[in-house]
Amino acid sequence: MTLRGRGLGFTAGLAVAVVSIQIAASAAHKVFYLTQLTMSAYSMLVVLGLVMLMGYAGQASMGQAGFFAIGGYVAAFLTTFDLAPRRDTLLVALLDRAHLLMTRPDGSGGSVTHIHPWAAALVAIGLAAAIAWIVAGPVFRLRGHYLAMATLGFGIIVHRIFLGSSYFGAADGISDVPALVLLPGFSITGRAASRVSNYYAAWGLVLLTLWMISNLIESRVGRALKALHGSENAAAAVGIPIARFKTQVFILAAVLAALAGVLLTHYNGGIGPSEASVMKSVRYVAIVAVGGMANLRGALVMGTLLTFLSLRGYFGSFDDLVFGGILLAMMLFAPQGIVVGDLWRRLRSTFSGKKRGDDGPAA
Amino acid sequence: MTLDIFLQFCVAGVTYGIIYGVVAIGFTIIYNTTGIINFAQGEFLMIGGMTAVTLQRYLPLPLAILGAVAVTMLVGAAIEVLFIRWLHRPSVLRMIIITIGVSIVIREIALHIWDEKSHALPHFTGDSVSAIAVAGAKISPQVVWVIGVCGTMVVLLGLFFRATPLGRQMRACASNRDAARLCGINTRNMVTFSFVLSAGMGALAGCVVSPITYVQYDSGTALAIKGFTAAILGGLGSTAGAAAGGLILGLLESFGVWVLPAAYKDAVAIAVMLGVLFLRPSGIFGSAEAARLREY
User: Fold this and answer.
1) What is the residue-wise DSSP string for A166-224?
2) In angstroms, what CA-CA distances link A161 with A50, A69, A166, A261?
3) What percent of chain B has pLDDT over 90?
4) Is B280 helix (H, G, I), strand (E, B) or coil?
5) Of the candidates A160, A279, A332, which has its C-beta nearest B267's C-beta?
C-alpha cells in the first residue's frame, strides 16, 4: 500500500514536471525543445521495458534496439509500400474489402495506396511480440555471457536485414511515413502545429507505462522476477515458473520497444538503419545502468536528460563516448545507481515527514 | 567447382579462420584465468593495426609492428589494472557491461586519435598484385605471412603453456584459482598477464592481416563476435579447440560467400554462433558435462 502510494507520488511529480516544462518552453518561445523531449519520451518506453527485463529479472538484453527497429520498420514499410499496382491480388482485395487500405497523395503529385497506419501498427507490434516469443525459447536456456552474446547476435542480424534489404530502403531507411491519426484532429506527427499535443501524448503514454510497470513490479510477478534475479535455482525451488516469467517479461519489453518504434517512426516521418545498430542497444543498457539497474525512476530521469542532451547535439562527436564512458563509470563505481533515487526518497521524507498521517487514508 | 577455385576458397577461409582463431585464443586465455568474456577482445587487433600504421611512418616496418604490439600489451595491462583488478567478486552481468563499456570507449577514442577511414600496412613482401601460384590457385604473399605468423604464434603459445614456469602457473590458475594461490602463485598477476598476452597476440594478428582486410576504428566488434563464435565452437576454455573453431568458421564463411550474397557474410558467423549456443553450448569438441559445471 505504502509502496504503491510512493509510486503514485513520483508519477504525480513527473506529471507536474511535464506540464511545467511545456509551460516554461512555450513562455520562453523555445517550443522546439519539446520535439526532442517527445523523442526522448518514446526512447523511455524502450528503457522502461528494459529496466523490467534487466534490472528486475536480471536478464541482459543487448539487442533491444532490434525490437524497436522491427516496430518502426514494419510500420514504416506497411504505410509507404504502394499496393495500387497489386490491386488485383487476392490479399490486397481482401484488405480493401476489410477497409484496411487508404490512399493518400505522395510527395511527387501521384498517390500511394497502403495499409491503414492503425493496422500497420498492430501488425508491427504483434510481429515484434511473436519474434520475441520465438527467440525467447532458445535464448533463455542461456545465462550470463552466453545470453548477452545471443541477444547481441539477434540485434546484429536485425540490423543487417534492415541495412541489406532494398524493401527497407537499405542504408537510406524509409521516409515519407504518414501521420498516425489517434483521434479526429489529433495525430502522431512531427508537424510544428501539433508539437505540444504530441508532447503530451508521448509523456502521457510514458506516465501510463510507468504506472503500470510500477504496479506490476510490486505485485506477485515483480516479486517472482526479483527472486529469479537473486537465484534461478532457488526461485525454481519455491515453485516460480522461471521460464514462463522470463519469456513474458521479454515479450513485454519487446512490445514496449516496438510500440516506441512505431510511434517515433510516425513522429519523425521515417526510420533509418542506425536505429537498429548495436550502439543503440548499448545506449538503452547504459541508461538502465545509470538509473541504477532496478530503478524505474532513476532510469527515467537520467535517461530523459541524457537522451535529450544527445538529441540536441550537446555531446557533438563524443556522443557514443559519453554513453560508453557513463556505462563504464556506473558499473565500476556505482553498480546500484547514483543517488537520484535516494535523493528523491530523502527529499520526499523531508517534506512528507509531518504529513504521514494524512497520507494513510488517502492511499 | 574446379580444383583451383576450391583451393582459392580454402586459402581465403584459412586466412580469415586463423585470425578468428587468434581472437578466440585471446578470449580463451582471459576466460580461463578470470571467468570473464572480454567483449573488448576485437579492439586489441584494431589498436595493434592502427598503431602500426602510424608508427610505420617513422620506423621501419618490423620495428613499427613490435612497437604496436608493445603499445597494445600496455593497453591490455591498463584495462585489467584500471577496470578489473580492484573489483571485489563482481557479478557476471556487471563484468559483461564493463567490458562492453571498455570496448566502446576504446573504439571512440580510436575514432578521435585516428579517423573513420580504413588504414592498412603495406604488404610485407611484394605488393597487392603479386601472387604465388599453388596448384592453379593464386595466393598473395601476405596470406603466407598471415598463416605463417599466426600459426607460429599458436604453436609457440602451446609450448609456452606446457614448457615454461610462467605458462604452467597460468594453467594452474586456470584450472583452480584458489589452489593455485595456495601454492604461492600470485593469481592477480596471472590475470594481468593473461590480458597482456591476449592483447599482444591480438595486436600481432591485427598487424599481419591489415594489408588484406584493412583496419578502421570499428573493426573490433565484428572480430570479437567471430572470435567468440570460434571460441565456443571449440568449447570455451580450450586453446586448441579455439584454433580449430576459428579455422572451421573461416572455411564456413568462405564457402558461404559462394552460395550467399557477400553482404550476408557476417550473418554466417552469427548464425553459427546462435546455432552453437542453442544446440550445443559446450562446443563441438567440449564435453557437455564439463560445460554444465562451469559458470558463464
Assistant:
1) GGGTGGG-EE-PPPEEEETTEEE---GGGHHHHHHHHHHHHHHHHHHHHHHHTSHHHHH
2) 23, 11, 9, 16
3) 46
4) coil
5) A160
Amino acid in position A74 = V
How many CB atoms within 10 Å of residue A305?
14
CA dihedral over B244, B249, B255, B259, signed as positive or negative:
positive
Interface test with chain A among B30, B107, B108, by most A beta carbons within 10 Å: B108
Do residues B196 and B73 make contact, with C-beta atoms less than 8 angstroms apart? yes
Enter the C-alpha cell of residue B190.
Answer: 596471472
- pLDDT tens digits, residue range B91-130? 888 888 899 999 999 999 999 999 888 898 888 887 777 7
Mean pLDDT of chain A: 85
> B295 and A153 in contact by Cβ < 8 A?
no
Could you tell me which chain A residue has the CA closest to the CA of B265? A160
Reported for A178-181, long-range contacts at CB under 8 A and 24+ positions apart, including other chains, are: A178/A79, A178/A80, A178/A104, A178/A117, A178/A266, A179/A117, A179/A266, A180/A117, A180/A118, A180/A121, A180/A262, A180/A263, A180/A266, A181/A117, A181/A118
| CA nearest to B26, candidates B190, B244, B193, B198 | B198
Domains identified in chain B, total number: 1
The SS3 assignment for A144 reads helix
> DSSP strand E in chain B: where?
132-134, 137-139
- C-alpha cell of A13? 511529480
The CATH number that applies at residue B67 is 1.10.3470
A356 close to A316: Cβ distance less than 8 angstroms: no
Mutation choice for B interface testing from A59, A147, A149 by most B CBs within 10 A: A149
Over residues B9-27, the mean pLDDT reads 92
The secondary structure element, H or E, covering residue A244 is: helix A242-268
What is the domain range of residue B29? 3-293
Helices (H), strands (E): how many in chain A?
A: 15, 6
What average pLDDT score do residues A306-317 get? 89
Q: Comparing B5-9, B131-135, B148-152, which segment has the lowest mean pLDDT?
A: B131-135
In chain A, how long is the greatest CA-to-CA distance? 72
CA distance A336 to chain B (A): 11
**How far is residue B170 CA from its own chain's centroid?**
19
Residue A48 has pLDDT above 90, yes or no: yes
